[in-house]
Amino acid sequence: MRHFLTILAHEVRMLLVSPSTYIAAVGFLSVMGFIFTGILEAYSKAPQELSPASVFFEIYYFPAIFMVPLLTMKCLADERRLGTIETLLTTPVTTAEVVLGKYAAAYLLYLLFWGSTAGFFYILKRFAGDAHLIDPGPILGGYLFVAVSGLLFIAIGVFASSLSRNQAVAGMLCVTMLVGLIFGGQYLANATWMDREALSPLKAAVDYAQVQQHYQDFTRGVVDMRELLFYVSGTVLALIFSILCVETKLLHS
Amino acid sequence: MTATPIQPAIEVSHLVKSYAGVVAVNDISFTVPRGEIIGFLGPNGAGKSTTMRILTGYLPATSGQVSICGFPVATEPDAVKRRVGYMPENNPLPDDMRVSEYLYFRGRLKEVPRRSLGSRIDEVLELCDLKRVRHKIIGKLSKGFRQRVGIAESVLAEPPVIIMDEPTIGLDPHQILIVRDLIASLRGRMTVLISSHILPEIEMTCDRVLIINQGRIVAQGTPSDLRREVLGQSAYEIEAAGDLGSLPFLLGSIDPGLSVASEGAPDVLGFRTIKLKTLNPEDTGEAILRACLSEGLRVRALSRAHPTLEDVFLAATRRSWDAVAEDRVPPGRS
């Protein structure tokens, strides 16, 4: 793993000099800012049940679906398209180091984007002067959920990027997989045909993989080991598949 | 490290590589001693790039053994990758990095110590005449500069073996000259394996040439050995006019091996070009001239032909196509 840091530093640097990162960041922050302002307006008109933070984090899926592909679609697809994967893998670097380095760089950037929304809460605290608007529980829970679910989302993006040499295809695949993961579980759980006796093990599995449910648990302050394990094991699996995918594509190149 | 200096730089024995039923490399064996520059020739699709990729450990071989400086590629890929500088076909480079940044990144990946990396980068920039563009973005460089960046990158970590897949492709003659001098300057210090389509290029730079066709080695040796082996000893060209009917008999009296290879059509003055070939290494030009004149032939020119590597290449690849065609005759062979 001695080259992991070299690749990580290189990838972070490349992401930071690329204009697409800044476009993504500006888009993300302006959308999140508008949403936050909207929430505050609603709170100023009438008292609400939930704290602003838990309403704010409810739209976590929006950046997940639009930002993750932007951050990850390039990473492996572009290396293959340009052929630089060949120069990269003929140095004493393993495929695992390459994939993990790229994954870690995209994840760090994802965290950085989300971290910058902490400024919204700071401004609220500084100028609202109303302590009950700032409830640290849901804020911490929300950020924790973003950090943990981001592990899996970015890993899915890297996996999608390893499947194609076309960035656009990789991006669309990533969006499809994320929508399937985030909303598919909910849809299946509500489907009546799933209630049959014979399908009960499947039903149990679907209930376990409810991203929306996980989100609600986290913001309520319930950090379940099983849920953490869901994201960590999913991440490990997606990364292993990405590494295998890069290696098999070499054999058939 | 267990490798001793006596071990050859590259050792390939019975290498076979097949892709989904298509045999790209078919039982190739060769050895390259240290410090030699070796040229790898072959028509498109002959298996040059595949062989080079296997040598670098990028692709696994189907069967056979490959070792670099005594390290087998299959079992010690890391040791091999530390000893090989590789420049792939079409020289892929990232477009959005500066030259010096790219070299720094590659140097770190190739485990050049951080302390000596800066001075090493300066050295290779000097060597490849890239000092002027060190702060330019690679995507904006001209083809010649990009190619030199690729070469600089492959020699960066001072590997004992350098493998370059068509380093001169797409360069103008002046740039080819620079690249050739660059490769020649590595002679003795590093073992260089280059593939190219430009034959005079290979002939001038390389100590030895391997010609490969349809996945097999069809000829190998120094350019002059190859000429002798593939084309026979020597060839002469005469431009003469007159009655040529007695020429074969005449030639037989000079040297029994001498024969007419081809005879051209007469031009307006009645002169025709006749090509002769013989296995005799000695220069019989004077005897031929004398015999022709004594028979009343009018001779305008006589020259001893110097076959180029191109002729050798064409002859060797044609010969192997014939051989492969014969192989296909027995039924039941795929």
Secondary structure: elements and pairs:
The complex is a heterodimer of chains A (253) and B (334).
Chain A: H1 4-17, H2 19-45, H3 52-57, H4 61-72, H5 77-82, H6 84-89, H7 95-116, H8 118-128, H9 136-163, H10 167-190, H11 200-208, H12 211-219, H13 225-251
Helix pairs in contact in A: 1-7, 2-4, 4-7, 4-9, 4-10, 7-9, 7-13, 9-10, 9-12, 9-13
Chain B: E1 10-19, E2 22-32, E3 37-41, H1 48-56, E4 63-68, E5 71-72, H2 77-83, E6 84-87, H3 99-109, H4 114-127, H5 143-155, E7 161-165, H6 173-184, E8 191-195, H7 199-205, E9 208-213, E10 216-221, H8 223-231, E11 234-241, H9 247-254, E12 259-263, E13 272-278, H10 285-294, E14 298-305, H11 309-327
Question: What attributes does this structure have?
Answer:
heterodimer; A: 253 residues; mainly alpha; 13 helices; 0% strand; globular; B: 334 residues; alpha/beta; six-stranded mixed beta sheet; four-stranded antiparallel beta sheet; 14 strands; 36% helix; elongated; disordered C terminus
Specify the structural class of chain A: mainly alpha
- Overall structural class of chain B, as computed from helix and strand content, comes to alpha/beta
* Percent of residues in helices of chain A: over 70%
Shape of chain B: elongated
Helix percentage range of chain B: 25-40%
- Shape assignment of chain A: globular
Largest sheet of chain A: none
Number of strands of chain B: 14
Largest sheet of chain B: 6 strands, mixed
The termini of chain A sit apart by 26 Å
Mean pLDDT of chain B: 82
Rg of chain A, nearest Å: 20 Å
Query: How many angstroms separate the termini of chain B?
Result: 44 Å
Order of helices and strands of chain A: HHHHHHHHHHHHH
Strand percentage of chain B: 25-35%
